[in-house]
Amino acid sequence: MEEIKTILLKHGFSFKKQFGQNFLTDANLLDAIVRDGGVGADTTVLEIGAGAGALTRALSKAAKRVVALEIDKTLQPVLAETLAGCENTEVIFRDFLKADLPALERELGAYRVVANLPYYVTTPVLTRFLEEAELCEGVTVMVQEEVAERFTAQAGTPAYGAVTAAIALKGEAVITRRVPRTMFLPRPNVDSAVVRIDFEEGRIPVASAAAYRAAVRCAFLSRRKTLENNLMSAFRIPRERAKALLSEAGIADMVRGETLPPEVLARLADVLHAAGIV
User: Fold this and answer.
1) What angle do CA 89, 181, 153 make, to 5 degrees?
2) What DSSP character marks residue 235?
3) Phi/psi of residue 101, each to 5°?
4) 241 and 158 share a domain?
5) What share of the chain is helix, strand, coil (3-state, %, to 5)?
6) Does 88 share its domain with 188?
7) Does residue 15 register a pLDDT over 50?
């Protein structure tokens, strides 16, 4: 950790809360995250948030190619030093949430995402890959431990939510390791965990991915209300219509959406799509 601290001090870098900057520096942990991500000699890696470049450098040693996006341009001299000699690595100073993902994918080809994500952008970043990415083979990210529990939750549990069901359409989320707050610089107020999601085309067959997303949003619109009531609110339909749709999907009309596994939500999505509602 002292080496990174020294480099940051040398370049007058100051941590910025608005970017959620908490850097990893332990070499053994970094190498373990690279392994968790399934990175090999033929892998192209996209990293979101290069930070001080410690994970980027570990990725460059194992991968065919690494492209890292970093929002904080003041890290440019730091990364120039920490990534010196990493010929297979490119850093692009750009906000990923504003980047042209299709254009980036055309330039990358098939790739995997490995990143220590800032907590404040975890869900929007993951959502882009779930909903927009076409060439991404999987995502391995360090996130807040509580968020990791949500990503991997089972239906009917308190942690199960819309993001859990959204992930399930593309792959199964697995916690590969838990990381205490003491491993970060500066130290955050929470512990973290690494989550790996391997994308699998057609994992849960649906007629329309957009309809599935709409069904998921509806199911979790109000956790205390029945799915029947949420259908009425979300799609502005009368109660008898909502009951009929649920019946067609094989779902009891008094059930709450948070209790339904993704496969059942997919059935509802297909019914909604066939009915022309979404």
Assistant:
1) 90
2) H
3) -65, -45
4) no
5) 45, 20, 35
6) yes
7) yes
Tokens 């009309």 label which residue? Answer: 253
Q: What is the largest CA-CA distance in the chain?
A: 68
**Predicted pLDDT at 2:** 52
* Residue 17 scores a pLDDT above 80: no
Q: CB under 8 Å to 216, separation ≥6 — which residues?
A: 162, 165, 166, 265, 269
Q: Is residue 69 located within the same domain as residue 159?
A: yes
Residues 123 and 232 in one domain: no
Q: Full-prediction pTM beyond 0.90?
A: yes
- For strands 65-70 and 89-93, give the pairing: parallel
Residue 254 belongs to domain with CATH number: 1.10.8.100
Determine the average pLDDT of the residues in 9-20. 75
Round to whole Å and give the CA distance between 57 and 39.
13
* Calpha distance 39→61 (Å, rounded): 10
Q: Which domain range does residue 76 map to? A: 2-198
Mean pLDDT of 223-249: 96
State which amino acid sits at residue 115. A
Q: Does 97 map to a domain?
A: yes
CATH number at residue 83: 3.40.50.150
Tokens 């948070």 — which residue? Answer: 258
pLDDT > 90? residue 219: yes
Terminal alpha carbon distance of the chain: 52
